[in-house]
Amino acid sequence: MVVPTPYAVTSAVDNGIRVITDPSVYVLGKQTVDAAELDRFLADHGVSWESDSEVAGEVLTETAGRVCYMSFAKPRPGGNAAYLTHIKEVGHGSVLEHAVWNLLLTGVSRSLTHELVRHRAGFGFSQLSQRYVDESVAEYVEPDIIANDPELHAIWLETVKQSHAAYVKLAEALNAKLADSAAATAAMLPPGADRTTRRKAARQAARSVLPNATETKIFITGNARALRHFMEQRGSAQAEPEIRKLAGKILDVLQKDAPNLFGDYQKVPLPDGTFELVTPFKKV
Q1: Average pLDDT over residues 217-231
Q2: Which residues participate directly in catalysis (predicted)?
Q3: Cα→Cα distances 2→5, 52, 142, 160, 260, Å
Q4: In this structure, is residue 187 part of a structural domain?
Q5: What is the pLDDT of residue 140?
Q6: 86 domain residue, yes or no
């Protein structure tokens, strides 16, 4: 069962600061199946078989599982959905590693990505660089527990504004300072460093005052098994609320795209307005 998510992409400009309270998930890439090559393999081994799924990740997962036992000739009834349910029941999770998605996550905080990148097995990450990208455009992610309280929001917003103003001042002052050859040498920049090199050096030093709430963007690639592990770990009631909200959004897009791989999860409402993600097939 899939519980519709109440989340909407939420952001507002407050005193010049763009405040974000919900992440966005973009599915930028997924697999395709070379049907001719699959048919060639089957013909070479004297069998004919066709999955009833049109989702490449589901087809490839089923194919990988069937290769393990060469069970193409006499498939059990129920098609791909029944086959993948059995895979999850018996915990044959290694075959799920063959299904891969490319996701772009935005509207998330640096605090969240510090937790996200701990999920190394089965994932690849490419994140926005604070050394190269100018952070003078003010975008910050506010925790719901603060955003929902006017007094707490005012404290948070003032703190973020001060940090942001300090970053802008430091970046400008450092950039001007590094234009001086002596200062550039002291900062270990190459002789005659160009403007781009000086800007990068200024931003990498100035970013030290930016808070964990600073918005970032991160491109992730994950296989189905790794994504399931992420959702079980970060979709639990004990997880940090922002990353739990992200786990729910990732589940939404994956259940829509590959229901036979991710349809076993249920979204159980929690008091804070997020959802706990639960499945009868843990640690597949």
Answers
A1: 98
A2: 234 (involved in ionization of n3 of dump, leading to its activation)
A3: 9, 22, 27, 37, 13
A4: no
A5: 97
A6: yes
17 near 161, Cβ under 8 Å? yes
Q: Could you tell me which of 218, 188, 221 has the C-alpha nearest to residue 205? A: 188
CA–CA gap between residue 5 and residue 277 (Å, rounded): 12
Contact (Cβ atoms closer than 8 angstroms) between residue 136 and residue 168: yes
Catalytic (active site) residue 199: no
Find the catalytic residue in 66, 110, 203, 234: 234
User: Given this model, what pLDDT does residue 8 score?
Assistant: 41
Tell me the DSSP string of 75-97. PPTTHHHHHHHHHHHHT-GGGGG
- According to DSSP, residue 74 is labeled S
Residues placed in the known binding site: 94, 115-120, 127-131, 207, 223-225, 229, 234
Q: How many distinct structural domains can be found in the chain?
A: 1
Q: Which residues contact 67 (CB under 8 A, 6 or more apart)?
A: none
Residue 65 in any domain: the answer is yes
Q: Which residues are annotated as a binding site for dUMP?
A: 115-118, 127-131, 207, 234
Q: Is residue 84 part of a domain?
A: yes
- Alpha-carbon span 150 to 203, nearest angstrom: 32
The 10s digit of each residue's pLDDT in 246-263 is 999 999 999 999 999 999
Binding residues for FAD: 94, 118-120, 127, 223-225, 229
Answer with the residue of higher pLDDT: 12 or 208.
208
CB 60 within 8 A of CB 53: no
33 token code pair: 């199946």
User: Letter for the amino acid at 275?
Assistant: F
